[in-house]
Amino acid sequence: MYEILNFPQADIKIRQHGDVHEIFDVVRKCWLSYTPEEWVRQNTLHFLINQQGVPAALIAVEMPIRFNRMERRCDIVVYAKSGKPAIVVECKAPDVKLTQKTVDQAGRYNTTLKAPYLMITNGIKHYAFYIDFEHETTSALSSIPHYASLLMH
Questions:
Q1: DSSP β-bridge partners for residue 82
Q2: Could you tell me the pTM of the whole model?
Q3: What tens digit of pLDDT does each residue of 5-63 get?
Q4: How far is it, in rounded angstroms, from Cα 86 to Cα 129?
Q5: CB-based contacts of 5: which residues, under 8 Å, 6+ apart?
């Protein structure tokens, strides 16, 4: 049930509540139904906070946005201290292959947020991108940026 992901070991709280397995959301401070995608999302949050130096108070989880007059939800949005979005993260279940379609989905969400960084992950593979809106270019990154480097853009 708890698939090994390509993240450092994290102290993720899981409990049995009746017939349902639940996982504790470290940002929203509540118990959620355990799903494979939620497992990836929580591991990603722990990674961002504990390894990448992101303050938990500057993270939004399942943040609603409007895209083409439709309500959508970004899995994770990390904000700069200025309040501007710094990175949009799209999480998929471990068995979901990350494709251009996944990148496009995160990119569509980012058209309204205008974060300079995107990350997609299924917990096993992770990809990060830098978006230069001024020159309308996107560059693949070799690693996921630390929070301090997110603030430089």
A1: none
A2: 0.92
A3: 889 999 999 999 899 999 999 999 999 999 999 999 999 999 999 999 999 999 999 98
A4: 12
A5: 39, 40, 43, 94, 123, 124
Give mean pLDDT, residues 79-98: 94
Edge-first strand listing for the sheet containing 14-17: 14-17, 20-25, 30-33
Tokens describing residue 81: 């201290």
Amino acid symbol at 103: V
Which of the 8 DSSP states describes residue 102?
H
Could you identify the residue written with the tokens 């970004």? 74
Residue appearing with tokens 């068995």: 95
- Is the dihedral angle over the CA atoms 54, 111, 141, 134 positive or is it negative? negative
At which residue do the structure tokens 């949005």 appear?
77
CA-nearest of 118, 95, 117, 91 to 23 is 91
Length of the chain: 153
φ, ψ for residue 39, nearest 5 deg: -60, -45
Name 67's bridge partners. 70
Tokens of 76: 């994770």
Contacts of 56 (CB under 8 A, 6+ apart): 26, 27, 45, 49
